[in-house]
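Lecture 7 notes: from sequence to structure.

We start with a single chain of 303 residues. Read the sequence below before looking at the structure.
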Amino acid sequence: MPPMTNRSDIQETGLIALLPAALRPYAKLARLDRPIGTWLLLFPCWWGLALAGSQNFWLYLLFALGAFAMRGAGCTVNDMMDREFDRQVARTALRPLASGELSMRHATVFLAAQCLVGLAVLLTLNNTAVALGLASTLLIALYPLMKRVTHWPQFVLGLAFNWGALMGWTAARGTLDLPALLLYGAGILWTLGYDTIYAHQDKDDDARIGVKSTALRFGAATGQWLGFFYAGTIVLMAAAVLAAGWSVGLALLIAVLVAGHCLWQLVWLRIDDPEQCLVLFRANRFIGWLVLIPLLVGGLFFG
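Now the structure, written as tokens:
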């Protein structure tokens, strides 16, 4: 077995370093040191709200709290299921469950607490949104298992991480309509792109221990696949804007902004450079803003 490097995604810096020592393992389990995951989960929720024309600040705040809690819960479930794999991967070997810093009992209690926060947020929404939210729990539970059986776990992650697009629209409108479904499709393709980039960080360890991913499936052809995913993202995003009744100009503006950022990612893609892959993965939060801000401004002035 080749030696693992010292790279790790666990760092006791920033917010985590300010917490009491007893709370730090839980903060690391919820990835508080890596807020990018919360942003990537939250943006589709906010997109759905903004696409529906919502100017209800309270709904945006509720979805932010829900995304924060459920991203932590998802990470907890993932680490509970993957602790044996994580011990064999350089980047994840020091995660609290993999390293033994926390027990499964501690993780279970923490998971329940996070889910209760998410449920409290969910129950403030309308009945249709509540039903959708409850349905998403199956995807959350299934995702950690997918890397064992398919090279497409990123697709299942896309299904789970973009569910908020459906919920945001439904929370604002009370019904599930075509624009939300188009936005959901755009988000799934977006996730396939950015999480394939992310998976390239671990591809050597994944291949060694038998974990599957789109990074391993695509290999040297990753750039072409990303181009396809991002092109589909742009087309479906523009279609969602038009289907929601917004102007052609707004749809084109969002398409151009997102296309520019995606092209930048493709130009700078270095699939054998883990640090560069992490930079590009994290940069996808800017796509979140490039979609959200035009929708909010459009709703404010033209809604």
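The longest helix spans residues 57-86. Keep this in mind for problem set 3.
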